[in-house]
Specification:
This protein is 64% helix and 0% strand. With 192 residues, it is mainly alpha-helical. Helix 2 packs parallel to helix 4. The chain is elongated and about 60 Å long.
Amino acid sequence: MSHEDDEWAIVEETLMLAFPDTERNRWDAESSMRSYRIIIGDVPPAAVLVALRRLALESEGKWRPSAGDILRVLNEDPERPTFEDMIAALKAACKYPAGGRREARAQREHALIAGFIVPRLERLVMLRLDDPEYGELRRKELRMEWDAFVEAQEGRERHLLAGGRRNELGRLEPLRALGLTPPAGELEAGDG
């Protein structure tokens, strides 16, 4: 057995044992891993394990990720902030007094995080995510809202990129796509 075969055996064991069977997703030792490998393609097993760790956090270990879920994680932009990044940024912004300083702190984050937090800042500050009784529910709802926002922004970015003049690609302007004002002079300097 080669080293790569050993690594794929670890991936299979992780998929089989670390995630529960569900009605829609039962593990069949004969065919399941073969199907995953066909769909995943030439991705190294180590990269698949990294994706499985991320998916375990996302699912809280409650469902087995499909091969499509694994591919989605593998093909995501590594610079795109996660839900946990957004929560950390929200907590950092909440350390500032209400008003302009709190909003200014949120604006310093990645454009995706700022685009999510700034328009919702007053409401997000009121959420008690660490509440022992309702914090987990609020986090789940906020994660769903974040995921929907990110998905919408990715669609918007693709639209802006393809929205140039006839037979040309457009210029991607992520700050404008998120409804944020770029710092003064930043866009003019790049216009040439």
